[in-house]
Write a structure and sequence with these properties.
Elements (H helix, E strand, L loop, with lengths): L2 E5 L3 H9 L5 E9 L2 E13 L7 H12 L5 E3 L5 E8 L3 E5 L9 E8 L6 E3 L2 E5 L2 E5 L5 E6 L4 E3 L2 E14 L3 E5 L7
Antiparallel strand pairs: 1-11, 2-3, 3-5, 3-6, 4-14, 5-13, 6-12, 7-11, 7-13, 8-13, 9-10, 9-12
Length: 185
């Protein structure tokens, strides 16, 4: 299982990234996982990021970090789909993966934790590897990358808001160059 994480942004930079969100919409997401369909598999406020010259700075920093990681296909900055997720009290996302069954082929999922753990309770982000699960610790500005086929979940938010930005790296966003390393991931 691929999982890499690093703090790349300060609190002020995260506040600036949040400021690019234009219109939050209530969203319920249907989830199909392991052959089971859940009509409401996820519930949150959502906003698709529209890229422009003002906000490209942070995706470039993320791409630079990912492209320095060994054994990962290198990302090109071309039409990366990004969506804000604002989980408020009562929101969640059940265990799922980010593979798209009909459409573009997602390879990696990158998440950015934009606010502080002091601003919400609950909302643990879990990744699964077989019967094992790992909780990703919340830290403002932390970025993580997983393979889109990696199962993960966001537990119920019991108070406050948890704000993240998700980047979905598709096959078209990769140049297939891999820097080899003897490190085991």
């Amino acid at each position: 299982m691929l999982l890499k994480e690093k703090i790349l942004f300060s609190k002020d930079e995260c506040d600036r990234i949040i400021s690019y969100a234009e219109q939050w919409r209530n969203r319920e997401i249907s989830v199909e996982y392991e052959g089971k369909q859940n009509k409401v598999g996820g519930k949150m406020l959502s906003n698709t990021l529209i890229w422009n010259d003002e906000n490209m700075w942070f995706v470039e920093r993320i791409i630079d970090w990912v492209n320095d990681l060994p054994n990962i296909k290198k990302i090109m900055n071309n039409n990366i789909f990004a969506a804000y997720r604002n989980y408020k009290t009562g929101d969640f996302f059940i265990k799922h993966d980010d593979d798209i069954k009909n459409g573009a082929e997602r390879i990696y999922t990158i998440g950015v934790q934009l606010n502080s753990k002091e601003e919400f309770t609950g909302g643990d982000f879990k990744v699964y590897n077989g019967n094992n699960e790992k909780i990703i610790n919340f830290e403002t500005g932390k970025v993580y990358i997983i393979e889109s086929s990696t199962p993960h979940s966001v537990e119920l938010i019991t108070s406050g808001n948890r704000i993240t930005l998700m980047l979905f790296i598709e096959k078209q966003n990769l140049n297939n160059e891999i820097i080899k390393s003897k490190n085991i991931i």
